[in-house]
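Need C-alpha coordinates for this chain, all 446 residues.
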Amino acid sequence: MVRIGFEIHVQLKTDSKLFCSCSTRFLDAEPNTNVCPVCTAQPGSKPEGINEEVLRKAVQVALALNCKIKTEPLRFLRKHYFYPDLPNNYQRTSEPFAVEGELNGVRIREIHIEEDPGRYELRDGTVDYNRAGVPLIEIVTEPDMHSVEEAREFLKHLRAVLDYLDVILYPQIGFRVDANVSIEGGERVEIKNINTIHGVVKALRYEISRHKRMLQMGKEIKRETRHWDEVRGVTVTLREKETAEDYRYMVDPDIPPYHIDPALIEELRAKMPELPFQKKERLMEQYGIDESTAWTLVLDKELGNLFEALAKSVGAKNAASFCTNLRGELNYRGIYLSEVPRRERLEKLAKLYFSGQITKPVYIEYMRKILDDPSFEPQAQEQLSDDEIREIARQIIEGNAAAVSDYKRGEKKAINYLVGQIVARTKGRADPKRAIQILREELERA
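Here are the C-alpha coordinates for all 446 residues:
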Protein backbone atom coordinates (compact mmCIF):
# COMPACT_ATOMS: atom_id res chain seq x y z
CA MET A 1 0.00 0.00 0.00
CA VAL A 2 1.22 3.49 -0.86
CA ARG A 3 1.32 6.12 1.91
CA ILE A 4 1.88 9.80 1.12
CA GLY A 5 2.17 12.78 3.45
CA PHE A 6 3.21 16.38 2.91
CA GLU A 7 5.12 19.18 4.59
CA ILE A 8 3.93 22.30 2.79
CA HIS A 9 5.69 25.67 3.11
CA VAL A 10 3.60 28.76 2.38
CA GLN A 11 5.17 32.23 2.21
CA LEU A 12 2.69 34.56 3.87
CA LYS A 13 1.52 37.79 2.25
CA THR A 14 2.80 40.47 4.61
CA ASP A 15 4.62 43.75 3.98
CA SER A 16 7.50 43.02 6.35
CA LYS A 17 9.48 39.97 7.43
CA LEU A 18 8.83 37.82 10.50
CA PHE A 19 11.34 39.43 12.90
CA CYS A 20 12.32 42.72 11.23
CA SER A 21 10.77 45.52 9.16
CA CYS A 22 12.49 44.67 5.85
CA SER A 23 10.26 44.23 2.81
CA THR A 24 9.17 40.70 1.89
CA ARG A 25 9.16 41.44 -1.87
CA PHE A 26 12.26 39.42 -2.72
CA LEU A 27 11.31 38.80 -6.36
CA ASP A 28 11.00 42.50 -7.17
CA ALA A 29 14.29 43.78 -5.73
CA GLU A 30 17.96 43.74 -6.61
CA PRO A 31 19.83 40.99 -4.73
CA ASN A 32 20.67 41.73 -1.10
CA THR A 33 18.87 45.10 -0.95
CA ASN A 34 15.86 44.23 1.28
CA VAL A 35 18.10 43.25 4.19
CA CYS A 36 19.18 44.50 7.60
CA PRO A 37 21.44 43.30 10.45
CA VAL A 38 18.63 41.10 11.82
CA CYS A 39 17.81 39.09 8.68
CA THR A 40 21.49 38.77 7.73
CA ALA A 41 22.48 37.74 11.29
CA GLN A 42 25.07 40.44 11.91
CA PRO A 43 26.91 40.12 15.25
CA GLY A 44 24.91 41.63 18.08
CA SER A 45 21.63 41.89 16.14
CA LYS A 46 18.41 40.78 17.83
CA PRO A 47 14.96 39.96 16.39
CA GLU A 48 12.56 42.89 16.68
CA GLY A 49 9.58 40.82 17.86
CA ILE A 50 6.95 38.76 16.06
CA ASN A 51 5.14 40.38 13.13
CA GLU A 52 1.51 40.55 14.30
CA GLU A 53 0.18 40.26 10.72
CA VAL A 54 1.93 36.89 10.42
CA LEU A 55 0.04 35.64 13.47
CA ARG A 56 -3.29 36.83 12.05
CA LYS A 57 -2.79 35.13 8.69
CA ALA A 58 -1.45 31.95 10.26
CA VAL A 59 -4.49 31.71 12.53
CA GLN A 60 -6.79 32.31 9.54
CA VAL A 61 -5.25 29.35 7.73
CA ALA A 62 -5.52 27.15 10.81
CA LEU A 63 -9.21 27.99 11.21
CA ALA A 64 -9.88 27.30 7.53
CA LEU A 65 -8.23 23.88 7.93
CA ASN A 66 -10.42 23.07 10.94
CA CYS A 67 -7.49 22.99 13.34
CA LYS A 68 -7.49 23.32 17.11
CA ILE A 69 -5.47 26.42 17.99
CA LYS A 70 -3.32 26.34 21.10
CA THR A 71 -3.70 29.26 23.47
CA GLU A 72 -0.83 28.35 25.78
CA PRO A 73 2.43 30.35 25.31
CA LEU A 74 4.00 29.74 21.90
CA ARG A 75 7.78 29.30 21.92
CA PHE A 76 10.17 29.72 19.00
CA LEU A 77 12.99 27.23 18.59
CA ARG A 78 16.32 27.28 16.83
CA LYS A 79 16.63 24.52 14.23
CA HIS A 80 20.33 24.13 13.50
CA TYR A 81 21.76 23.21 10.14
CA PHE A 82 24.50 24.63 7.96
CA TYR A 83 23.94 25.94 4.44
CA PRO A 84 25.04 29.14 2.67
CA ASP A 85 21.48 30.55 2.52
CA LEU A 86 21.02 30.39 6.32
CA PRO A 87 22.94 33.34 7.84
CA ASN A 88 22.38 32.34 11.50
CA ASN A 89 23.26 28.70 10.86
CA TYR A 90 19.87 28.02 12.44
CA GLN A 91 16.27 28.60 11.35
CA ARG A 92 13.74 30.07 13.77
CA THR A 93 10.63 27.88 13.84
CA SER A 94 7.75 27.86 16.29
CA GLU A 95 6.32 24.98 18.20
CA PRO A 96 3.03 23.81 16.62
CA PHE A 97 0.41 26.47 17.24
CA ALA A 98 -2.41 24.50 15.55
CA VAL A 99 -3.12 20.76 15.49
CA GLU A 100 -5.67 18.10 14.50
CA GLY A 101 -7.12 19.71 11.39
CA GLU A 102 -8.65 18.20 8.25
CA LEU A 103 -9.06 19.04 4.57
CA ASN A 104 -10.60 16.88 1.84
CA GLY A 105 -10.34 13.76 3.99
CA VAL A 106 -6.67 14.32 4.88
CA ARG A 107 -5.74 14.97 8.50
CA ILE A 108 -3.60 18.00 9.30
CA ARG A 109 -1.16 16.99 12.03
CA GLU A 110 0.17 20.46 12.88
CA ILE A 111 1.06 23.93 11.62
CA HIS A 112 4.21 25.91 12.50
CA ILE A 113 5.39 29.46 11.87
CA GLU A 114 8.97 29.84 10.68
CA GLU A 115 11.33 32.10 8.75
CA ASP A 116 12.45 31.40 5.20
CA PRO A 117 16.17 31.11 4.43
CA GLY A 118 17.80 33.08 1.63
CA ARG A 119 18.25 31.85 -1.94
CA TYR A 120 21.46 29.99 -2.80
CA GLU A 121 22.29 29.55 -6.47
CA LEU A 122 24.22 26.30 -6.54
CA ARG A 123 25.34 26.79 -10.15
CA ASP A 124 27.21 30.07 -9.59
CA GLY A 125 27.68 30.02 -5.81
CA THR A 126 25.84 33.28 -5.10
CA VAL A 127 23.49 33.97 -2.19
CA ASP A 128 20.63 36.49 -2.10
CA TYR A 129 19.38 37.23 1.43
CA ASN A 130 16.31 39.23 0.34
CA ARG A 131 14.21 36.15 1.11
CA ALA A 132 15.87 35.48 4.49
CA GLY A 133 13.32 36.12 7.23
CA VAL A 134 10.22 36.06 4.99
CA PRO A 135 7.43 34.52 7.11
CA LEU A 136 6.34 30.96 6.38
CA ILE A 137 3.82 28.55 7.74
CA GLU A 138 4.59 24.85 7.49
CA ILE A 139 1.50 22.65 7.15
CA VAL A 140 2.22 19.03 8.08
CA THR A 141 -0.26 16.32 7.06
CA GLU A 142 -0.67 12.77 8.21
CA PRO A 143 0.24 10.11 5.60
CA ASP A 144 -3.43 9.69 4.65
CA MET A 145 -3.09 9.76 0.86
CA HIS A 146 -2.75 6.41 -0.89
CA SER A 147 -2.42 7.41 -4.53
CA VAL A 148 -0.98 10.17 -6.66
CA GLU A 149 -4.52 11.22 -7.60
CA GLU A 150 -5.51 11.67 -3.93
CA ALA A 151 -2.36 13.71 -3.33
CA ARG A 152 -3.07 15.95 -6.31
CA GLU A 153 -6.67 16.55 -5.21
CA PHE A 154 -5.57 17.47 -1.71
CA LEU A 155 -3.05 20.01 -2.99
CA LYS A 156 -5.64 21.53 -5.35
CA HIS A 157 -8.07 21.95 -2.45
CA LEU A 158 -5.36 23.42 -0.20
CA ARG A 159 -4.26 25.87 -2.89
CA ALA A 160 -7.88 26.97 -3.30
CA VAL A 161 -8.29 27.58 0.44
CA LEU A 162 -5.10 29.68 0.54
CA ASP A 163 -6.23 31.68 -2.50
CA TYR A 164 -9.64 32.40 -0.97
CA LEU A 165 -7.91 33.63 2.20
CA ASP A 166 -5.51 35.75 0.08
CA VAL A 167 -2.50 34.79 2.23
CA ILE A 168 0.07 33.69 -0.39
CA LEU A 169 2.90 36.20 -0.89
CA TYR A 170 3.47 35.36 -4.56
CA PRO A 171 0.48 33.46 -6.02
CA GLN A 172 2.49 32.57 -9.14
CA ILE A 173 4.88 30.65 -6.87
CA GLY A 174 2.20 29.17 -4.61
CA PHE A 175 3.92 26.92 -2.11
CA ARG A 176 6.86 24.54 -1.76
CA VAL A 177 6.17 20.89 -1.00
CA ASP A 178 8.26 18.24 0.73
CA ALA A 179 6.60 14.92 -0.10
CA ASN A 180 7.02 11.83 2.10
CA VAL A 181 6.26 8.54 0.39
CA SER A 182 6.53 4.87 1.28
CA ILE A 183 5.12 1.58 0.10
CA GLU A 184 4.59 -1.56 2.14
CA GLY A 185 7.92 -3.26 2.73
CA GLY A 186 10.07 -0.13 2.46
CA GLU A 187 11.17 2.89 4.49
CA ARG A 188 9.81 6.40 4.12
CA VAL A 189 11.61 8.67 1.64
CA GLU A 190 11.33 12.46 1.58
CA ILE A 191 11.43 14.43 -1.69
CA LYS A 192 12.45 18.04 -1.02
CA ASN A 193 11.38 21.42 -2.41
CA ILE A 194 8.93 20.64 -5.21
CA ASN A 195 7.51 23.92 -6.48
CA THR A 196 4.33 23.00 -8.39
CA ILE A 197 1.43 20.58 -8.05
CA HIS A 198 2.35 19.20 -11.47
CA GLY A 199 5.88 18.65 -10.19
CA VAL A 200 4.59 16.83 -7.10
CA VAL A 201 2.55 14.50 -9.29
CA LYS A 202 5.52 13.67 -11.51
CA ALA A 203 7.89 13.24 -8.56
CA LEU A 204 5.50 10.91 -6.71
CA ARG A 205 4.89 8.79 -9.79
CA TYR A 206 8.62 8.40 -10.35
CA GLU A 207 9.39 7.64 -6.71
CA ILE A 208 6.58 5.09 -6.28
CA SER A 209 7.73 3.33 -9.44
CA ARG A 210 11.34 3.35 -8.15
CA HIS A 211 10.27 1.83 -4.82
CA LYS A 212 8.35 -0.96 -6.56
CA ARG A 213 11.27 -1.79 -8.85
CA MET A 214 13.69 -1.95 -5.92
CA LEU A 215 11.46 -4.27 -3.90
CA GLN A 216 10.94 -6.51 -6.94
CA MET A 217 14.73 -6.79 -7.26
CA GLY A 218 15.05 -7.62 -3.56
CA LYS A 219 16.78 -4.34 -2.72
CA GLU A 220 16.31 -2.39 0.49
CA ILE A 221 14.61 1.01 0.44
CA LYS A 222 16.52 3.17 2.90
CA ARG A 223 15.16 6.17 4.73
CA GLU A 224 16.66 9.17 2.96
CA THR A 225 16.07 12.64 1.56
CA ARG A 226 15.99 13.02 -2.21
CA HIS A 227 15.85 15.93 -4.65
CA TRP A 228 13.38 16.17 -7.55
CA ASP A 229 15.27 16.98 -10.77
CA GLU A 230 12.57 18.65 -12.88
CA VAL A 231 14.68 18.67 -16.05
CA ARG A 232 15.61 14.98 -15.99
CA GLY A 233 12.33 13.84 -14.41
CA VAL A 234 14.05 11.80 -11.68
CA THR A 235 14.75 11.96 -7.95
CA VAL A 236 18.37 11.87 -6.76
CA THR A 237 19.85 11.21 -3.34
CA LEU A 238 20.68 14.27 -1.22
CA ARG A 239 21.47 12.76 2.18
CA GLU A 240 20.32 10.29 4.77
CA LYS A 241 17.05 11.39 6.40
CA GLU A 242 17.67 13.58 9.45
CA THR A 243 16.03 13.08 12.83
CA ALA A 244 14.96 15.79 15.26
CA GLU A 245 18.17 15.18 17.21
CA ASP A 246 20.24 16.08 14.14
CA TYR A 247 18.85 19.62 14.20
CA ARG A 248 19.77 20.19 17.89
CA TYR A 249 16.58 22.13 18.64
CA MET A 250 16.74 24.63 21.47
CA VAL A 251 14.39 27.39 22.68
CA ASP A 252 15.40 30.75 21.17
CA PRO A 253 16.36 32.98 24.12
CA ASP A 254 15.88 36.16 22.03
CA ILE A 255 12.14 35.65 21.45
CA PRO A 256 9.79 35.69 24.45
CA PRO A 257 6.92 33.17 24.40
CA TYR A 258 3.89 34.51 22.55
CA HIS A 259 0.31 34.08 23.69
CA ILE A 260 -2.38 33.82 20.98
CA ASP A 261 -5.35 35.72 22.38
CA PRO A 262 -8.61 33.70 22.24
CA ALA A 263 -10.36 36.97 21.34
CA LEU A 264 -8.21 37.21 18.21
CA ILE A 265 -9.19 33.67 17.25
CA GLU A 266 -12.90 34.46 17.58
CA GLU A 267 -12.49 37.77 15.70
CA LEU A 268 -10.86 36.00 12.76
CA ARG A 269 -13.39 33.18 12.85
CA ALA A 270 -16.21 35.73 12.54
CA LYS A 271 -14.48 37.47 9.61
CA MET A 272 -13.70 34.26 7.70
CA PRO A 273 -14.45 34.70 3.98
CA GLU A 274 -16.47 32.21 1.95
CA LEU A 275 -14.30 29.12 1.47
CA PRO A 276 -14.27 26.75 -1.54
CA PHE A 277 -16.56 24.06 -0.10
CA GLN A 278 -19.05 26.74 0.96
CA LYS A 279 -18.97 28.37 -2.45
CA LYS A 280 -19.46 24.96 -4.08
CA GLU A 281 -22.66 24.42 -2.12
CA ARG A 282 -23.90 27.94 -2.89
CA LEU A 283 -23.25 27.65 -6.65
CA MET A 284 -25.10 24.34 -6.80
CA GLU A 285 -28.12 25.81 -5.02
CA GLN A 286 -28.09 29.24 -6.65
CA TYR A 287 -27.34 28.26 -10.25
CA GLY A 288 -28.50 24.65 -10.45
CA ILE A 289 -25.15 23.22 -11.56
CA ASP A 290 -23.94 19.73 -10.68
CA GLU A 291 -21.34 19.02 -8.01
CA SER A 292 -18.52 18.10 -10.42
CA THR A 293 -18.92 21.35 -12.36
CA ALA A 294 -19.15 23.34 -9.13
CA TRP A 295 -15.86 21.90 -7.87
CA THR A 296 -14.22 22.68 -11.22
CA LEU A 297 -15.26 26.30 -10.81
CA VAL A 298 -14.47 26.89 -7.14
CA LEU A 299 -11.02 25.26 -7.04
CA ASP A 300 -9.76 28.22 -9.08
CA LYS A 301 -10.94 31.34 -7.23
CA GLU A 302 -10.84 33.64 -10.27
CA LEU A 303 -12.59 31.06 -12.46
CA GLY A 304 -15.46 30.93 -9.96
CA ASN A 305 -15.63 34.71 -9.99
CA LEU A 306 -15.69 34.75 -13.80
CA PHE A 307 -18.52 32.20 -13.81
CA GLU A 308 -20.69 34.36 -11.57
CA ALA A 309 -19.98 37.46 -13.67
CA LEU A 310 -20.87 35.62 -16.89
CA ALA A 311 -23.98 34.01 -15.43
CA LYS A 312 -25.50 37.49 -15.16
CA SER A 313 -25.03 38.21 -18.86
CA VAL A 314 -25.10 34.87 -20.72
CA GLY A 315 -26.90 32.58 -18.25
CA ALA A 316 -25.59 29.96 -15.83
CA LYS A 317 -25.61 27.07 -18.34
CA ASN A 318 -23.58 28.99 -20.92
CA ALA A 319 -21.27 30.41 -18.26
CA ALA A 320 -20.56 26.92 -16.89
CA SER A 321 -19.84 25.58 -20.38
CA PHE A 322 -17.47 28.47 -21.12
CA CYS A 323 -15.61 28.17 -17.81
CA THR A 324 -15.30 24.38 -18.11
CA ASN A 325 -13.70 24.76 -21.54
CA LEU A 326 -11.44 27.47 -20.14
CA ARG A 327 -10.39 25.23 -17.24
CA GLY A 328 -9.25 22.61 -19.77
CA GLU A 329 -7.10 25.15 -21.59
CA LEU A 330 -5.64 26.40 -18.29
CA ASN A 331 -4.85 22.84 -17.19
CA TYR A 332 -3.05 22.24 -20.49
CA ARG A 333 -0.84 25.24 -19.74
CA GLY A 334 -0.47 24.38 -16.04
CA ILE A 335 -1.68 27.79 -14.84
CA TYR A 336 -4.45 29.43 -12.82
CA LEU A 337 -6.74 32.09 -14.23
CA SER A 338 -5.12 34.69 -11.94
CA GLU A 339 -1.95 34.32 -14.01
CA VAL A 340 -3.68 35.43 -17.23
CA PRO A 341 -3.26 39.16 -17.96
CA ARG A 342 -6.23 41.30 -18.98
CA ARG A 343 -8.81 38.74 -17.96
CA GLU A 344 -11.66 41.03 -19.01
CA ARG A 345 -11.00 39.79 -22.56
CA LEU A 346 -12.44 36.41 -21.59
CA GLU A 347 -15.71 37.96 -20.51
CA LYS A 348 -15.85 39.82 -23.83
CA LEU A 349 -15.15 36.57 -25.70
CA ALA A 350 -18.02 34.77 -23.96
CA LYS A 351 -20.44 37.55 -24.85
CA LEU A 352 -19.30 37.51 -28.51
CA TYR A 353 -19.82 33.76 -28.76
CA PHE A 354 -23.13 33.42 -26.95
CA SER A 355 -24.60 36.38 -28.83
CA GLY A 356 -23.76 34.64 -32.12
CA GLN A 357 -21.13 37.15 -33.25
CA ILE A 358 -18.44 34.46 -33.65
CA THR A 359 -18.64 30.75 -34.43
CA LYS A 360 -17.47 27.95 -32.14
CA PRO A 361 -14.20 27.31 -34.03
CA VAL A 362 -13.35 31.01 -33.80
CA TYR A 363 -14.34 31.06 -30.10
CA ILE A 364 -11.92 28.21 -29.32
CA GLU A 365 -9.18 29.85 -31.41
CA TYR A 366 -9.70 33.20 -29.65
CA MET A 367 -9.68 31.59 -26.19
CA ARG A 368 -6.28 30.05 -26.89
CA LYS A 369 -4.94 33.33 -28.26
CA ILE A 370 -6.08 35.23 -25.16
CA LEU A 371 -4.22 32.77 -22.92
CA ASP A 372 -1.06 32.83 -25.03
CA ASP A 373 -0.88 36.45 -26.23
CA PRO A 374 -1.43 39.35 -23.78
CA SER A 375 -1.90 41.78 -26.70
CA PHE A 376 -4.64 39.83 -28.51
CA GLU A 377 -8.08 41.43 -28.51
CA PRO A 378 -11.16 39.36 -29.53
CA GLN A 379 -13.42 41.00 -32.11
CA ALA A 380 -16.76 40.15 -33.67
CA GLN A 381 -16.39 38.42 -37.04
CA GLU A 382 -18.70 38.77 -40.00
CA GLN A 383 -20.34 35.40 -40.64
CA LEU A 384 -21.23 33.93 -44.01
CA SER A 385 -24.81 33.86 -45.22
CA ASP A 386 -26.61 30.61 -46.02
CA ASP A 387 -26.18 31.30 -49.75
CA GLU A 388 -22.42 31.76 -49.32
CA ILE A 389 -22.15 28.55 -47.25
CA ARG A 390 -24.22 26.68 -49.88
CA GLU A 391 -21.89 27.74 -52.70
CA ILE A 392 -18.84 26.59 -50.76
CA ALA A 393 -20.60 23.30 -49.86
CA ARG A 394 -21.19 22.60 -53.55
CA GLN A 395 -17.51 23.23 -54.28
CA ILE A 396 -16.46 20.88 -51.46
CA ILE A 397 -18.80 18.17 -52.75
CA GLU A 398 -17.41 18.47 -56.26
CA GLY A 399 -13.83 18.23 -55.01
CA ASN A 400 -14.28 15.26 -52.66
CA ALA A 401 -15.93 12.51 -54.67
CA ALA A 402 -14.60 9.70 -52.45
CA ALA A 403 -16.05 11.19 -49.25
CA VAL A 404 -19.38 11.85 -50.99
CA SER A 405 -19.45 8.23 -52.19
CA ASP A 406 -18.76 7.01 -48.64
CA TYR A 407 -21.59 9.16 -47.32
CA LYS A 408 -24.07 7.79 -49.89
CA ARG A 409 -23.07 4.22 -48.96
CA GLY A 410 -24.22 4.94 -45.43
CA GLU A 411 -20.96 6.02 -43.79
CA LYS A 412 -22.48 9.03 -42.09
CA LYS A 413 -19.18 9.97 -40.45
CA ALA A 414 -17.94 11.06 -43.84
CA ILE A 415 -19.97 14.23 -43.38
CA ASN A 416 -17.66 15.27 -40.54
CA TYR A 417 -14.75 15.36 -42.98
CA LEU A 418 -16.74 17.45 -45.44
CA VAL A 419 -17.87 19.88 -42.73
CA GLY A 420 -14.25 20.21 -41.64
CA GLN A 421 -13.37 21.21 -45.18
CA ILE A 422 -16.02 23.94 -45.09
CA VAL A 423 -14.81 25.25 -41.74
CA ALA A 424 -11.21 25.31 -42.99
CA ARG A 425 -12.17 26.99 -46.25
CA THR A 426 -14.19 29.69 -44.50
CA LYS A 427 -11.66 30.17 -41.65
CA GLY A 428 -14.39 29.64 -39.09
CA ARG A 429 -16.84 32.18 -40.50
CA ALA A 430 -19.41 29.48 -41.29
CA ASP A 431 -21.57 28.35 -38.40
CA PRO A 432 -20.93 24.57 -38.11
CA LYS A 433 -24.59 23.73 -37.36
CA ARG A 434 -25.80 25.63 -40.44
CA ALA A 435 -22.95 24.14 -42.50
CA ILE A 436 -24.01 20.58 -41.57
CA GLN A 437 -27.65 21.25 -42.42
CA ILE A 438 -26.85 22.90 -45.77
CA LEU A 439 -24.28 20.23 -46.63
CA ARG A 440 -26.84 17.45 -46.02
CA GLU A 441 -29.29 19.22 -48.30
CA GLU A 442 -26.72 19.46 -51.06
CA LEU A 443 -25.57 15.86 -50.60
CA GLU A 444 -29.16 14.67 -51.10
CA ARG A 445 -29.22 16.54 -54.41
CA ALA A 446 -25.79 15.35 -55.54
